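Handoff note, outgoing to incoming analyst
You'll be picking up this chain. Sequence as last confirmed:
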Amino acid sequence: MSATSPTEPPTARRARTHAEEIDAGNRFAFGANWSNFLARLTPERVAEAERSLREMLGRERLDGVRFLDIGSGSGLFSLAAWRLGASVTSIDYDPDSVACTQRLRDDLGDGEGRWDVAEGSVLDAATMAPLRNFDIVYSWGVLHHTGHMWDAIDAAAACTGAGGCFFVAIYNYQPIWTRYYTVVKRTYAASPPLVQWLFAAGYATEQILRGLVKDLLTLRNPLRRYQAKIGSRGMSMWHDWVDWIGGYPFEAATPEAVFSFVRARGYSLERIVTCGGGQGCNEFVFRRG
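Most recent structure output, in case you need it:
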């Protein structure tokens, strides 16, 4: 590992550290996957992202709202919040994810100055210190990939202002499968590109065959499964599969554990959508008292 220069800018230091983590097999290249996803971004996916925000937050517009997107990834949900009228701040630890979010802002924004994008970690006190009193703090499927999930949830929740909403999604804990996929993801992250591709292709094949059998048994049109995925937060089936099989670091929690942890910090639960005890994320909207 190269020595840290006292004059090295924080963003350059984080980018170097991030690259070293990927090279060492300790982190999945989330931003590279999101960059590929943006090539397939359509107006329909953007509209679906907007719809999912409106539905979970219970409001049609976000005019005048300060919206913090922690772990902005592709930038899709920052864009959705911006289009709904919010003033958006997007941060991400992955330089490629930051570049994705900046690209969406620059290509689809209108120069109103309502959308700031920055590189930073939710675990970095210096990054998080000025990020306070937001009306909505949003972090979907991110904080369990930091390597310190509970610290990350604590830091993210602290950005919410009085009366504001904390919208978070965390992987569901399963006693056997969480342990299994932790090993799979760690192995993926430490493998060369060809092996990673085989991992992803194998997982995708398994999911397609499993879905096909289920569809045939229930007399459902298999094409509807793909259409439903587009209609699920505007995401891409393939890129979600790659994110799932490769997403490391990886932690998970039961809905009860997340609820208890956030409630102890002065929040009440307004809405919860679970994955039914299986594989996936449980979604929570908390209100700060």
